[in-house]
């Protein structure tokens, strides 16, 4: 029987359950490899697109798309309706449950598509930018199409089968890049970004349909939707609050200041998104199935979470601190001289990201434990702190806004730990102990580039050389620190490469 296919045709029989222990860890590593490969290709194409788009479009044009994208992201929280998470964590997944999840996804997604389309004119009037309406209407089409691939992709994630997800992501990213650059060169302005997003969705959905198992339920059904709705209302609350907090800065800046200000913030935050796209999206996609499997098998969820936090900070903290140090060179190289106002914003946002990182997976582990209600409640103080931080310091401008996000990140870490202590018994001393190796690795990794920044600085004449040298020295110092200190991330990399060698030998 092929991986990903049903063990029994009976609709009441659970589809493809995973085995445990070593097999699970092996599947996690293999899945993470595919997911990271997908992310690396996506980031490479995104960076190439950014290099070109930032020079082809003005800050105002990019700001128009950024604001419209924020509103679409808010609507997407309802569009998804927690369907993917429901399918992943469901203990007894049957064909009927898959069909009901598909039906719920279509109903909510199409409702959100209609809302986006209908409200586009009013939103454009509110921001005094007619172009926002055009972008939102294209994004509404995305909402109509996405459900036809979302359920299949969620099923692949549950099975830790990331090969089809990798293929879909690869083809979608290539298509989006070609359309974005081509449309921008053709003079389509901010609409080039809207059309590229639609092209990527079309390709991704088409691939998911082609690659799904032959016996996979292809049609929606409303039977058994009660469980989906019960889970989805909590999950939607979680992601809605998360998206409100995440995207509030662009929305507020776009209205209170101007589109250019929103674009400067968006570009600064875009440097943080490089890490999210390189690692966090891949890790989060794999960790929810991993946490869920640990919960189903009654493994120590706290221990599992601490291990993931160690791995995450071991790669995330060095990256964030490095970006903060080379921010001028990175912005100048990636975006061009007209974007240097983003530099201090990016440096402050790095501090916020460092504070948030150990607890970014708090919601996922609580969902895996079946406590989606607590995961939803966690978002209320988290995003409340973020919005409060914005409101209190916004009169001090873009820089003040970013400092407010730092304060909110610190408060959010405290609140998240409180919830995790209550739900999975996570102790603060254990979290400190888990993250301490990452502190040492981070300090060693950034020492060369930090000393160079102090000695020679960064300016218009040397930013290319400085960035290139830092991009070589920092990874070398980081890898050396991982190996010398025997950081768990190094051990995982060794195991991943060892597994890859075994698979290559077996394929000969």
Automatic annotation (TrEMBL):
InterPro entries: Poly_Biosynth_Transport
Membrane-topology descriptor: Multi-pass membrane protein
Species, as recorded: Accumulibacter regalis
Record field: transmembrane: 62-81, 102-124, 136-156, 165-186, 192-211, 304-331, 343-361, 387-416, 428-457, 463-485
Lineage: Bacteria, Pseudomonadati, Pseudomonadota, Betaproteobacteria, Candidatus Accumulibacter
CDD domains: MATE_tuaB_like
The keyword Magnesium is assigned to this record: no
Family: Belongs to the polysaccharide synthase family.
Main location: membrane
Cellular compartments per GO CC: plasma membrane
The protein, known as: Lipopolysaccharide biosynthesis protein WzxC
